[in-house]
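Researcher: Checking consistency across runs. Here is Cation-translocating P-type ATPase again:
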Amino acid sequence: MKALGKFRYGNWFIPVVSGLLILLSFGVQYLFAGQWNATLTPRWWFAATEHSHETGHVFTLSNALMLAGGIVAGYKISVNAVRALQVKFISIDLLVSIAALGAVLIGNFWESAAVTFLFSVGHALEAGTMNKTRAALAELVAVVPDQAVVLRNGEQVQVPATEVKMGETVLVKNGAKIPVDGLVISGTGAIDEATITGESIPVEKSAADQVFAGTISHGGFLQVKATGTGADTTLARIIHRVEEAQDAKAKTQTFIDRFSKWYTPAVMLLALLAWLISADVVLGLTLLVIGCPGALVISIPVAIVAGIGRSARNGILIKGGEYLENAARITAVAVDKTGTLTEGRPVLTDIVVLDPKMDRSAVLRWAAGAEAGSEHPLAAPILDTARDEGVSPTTLAEDVTPVIGKGIVAHVEGQQVLVGNTALMAQYGITELGASAEVADELSAAGKTAMIIALEDRVIAVIAVADTIRADAPAMIRELHAIGVKKVVMLTGDSRKVAEAIAAATGIDEIQASLFPEDKLAAVAQMQSEGHVVAMVGDGVNDAPALATADIGVAMGAAGSAVAVQTADIALMGDRLLKLPEAIWLAQRTVRIMRQNITIALGTVLILLAGVFAGGVSMSLGMLVHEGSVLIVILNAMRLMRVRPTQVAVPDQVATGEDQKNKAALR
């Protein structure tokens, strides 16, 4: 009964009932001719429809069933036509309604039923397709967790996920959905983040790592401090963004809507003129049916919804149809360096030992001992490496003195340790630098921050720290070029030496270094003045002026940035750079399908119109072909849901030898 009730209010109820009545009409005419198929036509009908009486279209039982089938299918169409007229809009439904009513008045019951039945089938296909293409959104909604286990007064309490308070400790067990955004306080676990980033491989999480609502634990036990709950979670923002995007219209769609507004009255006028000139009412009614721009109207929105839905499933959020179209036209990409091309986390890359009495571990221990009391950002990678290699300092430095622009001076275990540049060495009277200056210059030329280490009055080593390039950065540049992007430009506030080293390793076409935010804006504007459609890729905050100026602003790694999800034209939910060319490629494919759909829709109308005037296309045949074009347009758009981009998916494990060489050179 439940299934029957669902069917009763579903998209296919009216077409099915109408179709059964039409089939029953044919059955009665075939099986009971001369018996139950008696004439039911009153005298007034013959007077009013002399044409139908002369041609043999009398009102029999089979015709009554055919008329009933047309009424069932046509009732909702007529209601929609009247509602559109009430707001002064001439809709496609009005064309069909007039054509169906005219066919009844001249006794063509089959033509009337066929027109309304096929049109209702088209509506059902359209609605069903839209529902299917919104599957990505439905999948996101389905993963929203209902319950959460929180720690209150030392006890585990199960509460609705929406009632979790900010700062509360949430317990995540194996197999559970994480109900909040938060930071891991303790424990370890493997988390499936496919709903947020589009990546299917579980990510290992431990203390201080970020987790997101809607992701699923595949092992382990986590205690999570809630930093986002209810509508303030990343998942909730994604759902809201996809809802808005799928309803937003592209420029092409807006044009088609305006075109249809004038096209429909034009078709009605053409049909009227054809009737008056030829005195053939059937010709006029057929032109009404043939001229329905149904396939044209559905051609754009079905492609946009499918393209945005597919992108969302792949962890790419596109703000709306307009941005989808703009993304397809991108010819230049401007990328920020830190956090985009690079990891955004400096690491210790080199330890060059210069004192024969020292080894790597000893140098690292002295450097870590000096940096343990420093708040400088470069201290963290040195301390992290010392901890990983088991040489962390056991005692704190007696004193640490930062020397601005030069380095630090510390006393560790009673000995003076200097970590800095040649100016620091000179300031403290160390003039015998040996090979350290040359080594430091070589490391700096490679885009690294080099630091000389001196113990008392002798240089013992040179170490270097660098923000490492993302492993997939070279592949991203190649893929952007492969899909038609003419120029990839790096905009960075860093020094030109660092920028050149990264450009050499990744294949960047152009460098603009030592830039302030307003300089990045000017650089984007300059590329636009050269005729480029520019995408700016950044973190959505520091690069805000350039992102706003670019034709398309792209936020990288938006799963960790609420600002990026809310403001970017395109947000890449994962940290994989290959999402960028994939987003552009999907946009290009969507626009191609939109154009194909427009061609199919207009081509079908023109061919049918030619057929009508040539005398070879009837009303029912025309509607059948017309609805066939609607189905073709829908199926063409549905290809976007099945697309498996191969040219834009180069995983690390199949990276080229050149990629591997670049990675090795940068570490």
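Researcher: Does this match what you'd expect to see?
Model: One thing to look at in this run: Residues 579-614 form the longest helix (36 residues).
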